[in-house]
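Input record, target 12 of the design panel.
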């Protein structure tokens, strides 16, 4: 059985890599390379998977919410992802990389009875990224 909980956070980022010239960055990332960044209202779906326990649940919602708040939302909400998230310091602040960082932040402190099954982030109404965990 799977449970998906939905969370929201607002953050800014800029897509840029030191491995490329300013011209190459502008060409590769377009307006997402604008020097002062831009923001998104991200939607984060966290899915957990496991058996239904004696209480009739996969996992306590409060325990999952507390973990997501502590490990993710407190680090990213109303932040600049390039500057405020050390885990993205040496990576381009794409939502693909953000999903990977969020998976790592969650599994680092994971102590819930169900396993983390998926991290899904919608960056805009048109862009959604899904990371299925093993
Ligand atoms: Ni963006």
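The sequence produced for target 12 reads:
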């Amino acid at each position: 059985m799977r449970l998906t909980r939905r969370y929201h956070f607002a953050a800014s980022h800029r897509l840029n890599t030191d491995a490329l010239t300013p011209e190459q960055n502008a060409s590769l990332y377009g307006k997402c390379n604008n020097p002062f960044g831009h923001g998104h209202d991200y939607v984060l779906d966290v899915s957990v998977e496991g058996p239904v326990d004696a209480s009739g649940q996969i996992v306590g919602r409060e325990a999952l919410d507390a973990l997501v708040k502590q490990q993710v939302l407190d680090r990213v909400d109303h932040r600049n992802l390039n500057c405020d998230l050390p885990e993205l310091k040496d990576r381009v602040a794409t939502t693909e990389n953000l999903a990977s960082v969020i998976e790592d932040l969650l599994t680092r402190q994971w102590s819930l009875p169900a396993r983390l099954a998926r991290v899904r982030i919608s960056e805009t109404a048109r862009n959604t990224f899904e990371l299925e965990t093993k």
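The first strand starts at residue 2 and ends at 13.
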